[in-house]
Structures are given as C-alpha cells and as structure tokens.
Design a protein that fits this description.
Layout lengths: L6 E3 L3 E3 L16 H8 L2 H47 L2
Length: 90
C-alpha cells in the first residue's frame, strides 16, 4: 500500500507528515502562552494551515484504503460463508 507522505504500519497506526518549516520548534512550545504568540504570526498560521491540508489529504487516503480493505474482507467472508452453506446443503 502506498500513502503519499503518510506511512502506515500494521499495529502502529499512521505517521502523518512532519512539520518541516523553520518558524516553529515544537519541542520548545510548552504552554498556551507560546501557542498564542505563534498564532499571532501570519507566516506560522499559514504554515500550520498548509500542514493541516496535507494531513487531511493523508487521512482521506488512509480512510479510502481502509474502506476498500474492509469491503474486500467482508466480500471474502460472505463468499466463504456461502461456500460453507453450499457444502452443508449437499
């Protein structure tokens, strides 16, 4: 399976794209005061909006993949049950 920018690992969930900008060091953001200060900077807000858009696209990809996988699995289960019912009716 291929997710553009998102890495899916069984049992580990999905790793979304990381912030690669140079305007924010998230390791140093410790509280609401720092968040409010960052939110006052239009460049930071723009970067965060861009990152949120990327995350939304990645989440949509994962959702679509999961939906297709569930549909395929359900179809396989239904086929297996139908086969068992045919064998039992003989």
């Amino acid at each position: 399976m291929c997710f553009v920018g998102a890495q899916a690992n069984a049992g580990e969930g999905v790793r979304l794209a990381a912030y690669e900008g140079d305007k924010v060091n998230f390791a140093k953001v410790k509280g609401i005061t720092e968040c409010v200060q960052l939110a006052a900077c239009p460049d930071v807000v723009s970067d965060m909006e861009d990152l949120a858009i990327i995350w939304c696209k990645q989440i949509e990809q994962v959702h679509n993949w999961a939906t297709q996988t569930i549909d395929k699995t359900t179809g396989l289960c239904v086929e297996a049950v139908m086969q068992l019912l045919k064998e039992d009716s003989r």
